[in-house]
Amino acid sequence: MLFRLVSFAAGLALSTAALVQLEPEVTPHNPELSSWSKVEPTHSEKKIHLHVGLKVESENLANLEKIFWDVSDPDHASYGQHLSIEEVRDVLAVPSTRIEKVRAWLQGAGAERITLNPHKDMFEVDISAQQLERMLHTKLHEFSHKEHKNVVITRASAQYWVPSDISSHVNIVGELLQFPNPRSSKLRNLKGSGTWPNECDSGSCAGLVQPSVLNKRYSLPTSLASDTASGNAMAVAEFQGQYFKPTDLQKFSTICKQNVSVAKIVGGNSNSAGIEAELDIEYIKSIAPSIPLTVVYSSAYSLLNWVNSITSDASSPRVHSVSYGNDEAQQTSRAFIAQASTAFQKAGAQGISILFASGDQGVCGREGCGFLKKKFHPDFPAGSPYITSVGGTNFAGAGIGDETAWSGSGGGFSDNFGIPDFQKDAVAGYKASPDAKLPSSSYYNNTGRGYPDIAALGGTKTPYCIASNGFFEGVAGTSAACPVAAGVFARLNGIRLSSGKSVMGFLNPWIYKNPSVFNDVTSGCNNEGGSAGFTAVKGWDPATGLGTPNFEAMAKAL
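Above: the chain's sequence. Below: its structure in token form.
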């Protein structure tokens, strides 16, 4: 839709020109509904790093998606025949005329660094705040998080606009309107009540989940010859301020008798303690101690920046764990979803497995269910059909044994994605189960993609013992479950590589074709203390997926 504007509500003077609003369905920041508060206008000279997603012809996108599904399906002749970066680029085939037109627009706006990614479907741009405001006819502000006061991000405080002749070539300039959700401090400093032996030499770990607990529950061998398979690697994603102290990793290794180290850092590290980062690192390495770990750090909360970096690097690890997300309604626009979906498909087509935590607020999400018109709030990216979503569980008893759904584990049905083929039977089976006790149909999208796909320990009854800032403490959340599951699949990749096979790539088709290799979880509900939620039942459910890993069974099914 075209507009002729003489002035803009934010007070920016515009010359009369035809403009098109991008991401029009995303409303500007609302302080009453957001966990972020506007602090001050962004300084005019501040350098902003952002991404400009280019449009790709629909037939080319359809071709990429077909390849994505084919190479990910264990029953397809193309299974494991992953593409190179250059081959994906050729599938997308973004016209050079489009690339140069957008490049010229960015140059004309004063951008200092304009870099085209190897797939030629996204620009990375460095530009001053003042120049960006003029380019997009918007206003930038600094925002601080209400719970994490030290976390400050730059976002647009109003909608943004581009010239009409550019709008036909650009999907999104982002992430200017997306607000992330940092980890809640309520999931820290927790005590455990487990009755298993304390195998970490610290009294603070007593009753908490430790590496030995995970190894026993998930049938993980101490070591396998395949763990050192050539070319195998794994990674965790960390965002603003989530650094790690090597001394914390050393302390955890010594006290809990592990070999926790980081082989490679992308994006830098400040040698300061970040709970999220150290949880990820200490437990993905506890699960897969012999597999090299990369930490991919981004100074901004930017999903597009992260996924662009891993898909643009031919040497990127084949398994990535991400403890990041937000409610679909808070985080996304159609353009943002489309851009992220393409990026996830590029990753899968290139043989990269991506696992996301399913969220820590149960079915109601970050926004809550509401009082008058109750509505569940599914998570993104956890609700995307192009990634693997990991929920959280607790032990049902005081010892190591059967698990139950954690009430805070994110799960449900997407409002943006339909049910993918790989889970149609599983979802139908759940809805037909008399034990499901389905909530009112008005609460959720009955035709949406169900998530999570799998789960692992992560609930507040069974917090993990981690070393951070020189001390040990209990930490819970699906942010704990996700790196554990990722470490399991990294070891499975090692088995395949040592046998001369390809890595697994996008995991979900394999997961749903092999439901028996998971420990089924059949009790609990992710209602987070509310009156409604999804109940765990036999088989797949939108609280724990197909269940938790059984490594011995998974290895035999490869």
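The first strand starts at residue 3 and ends at 7.
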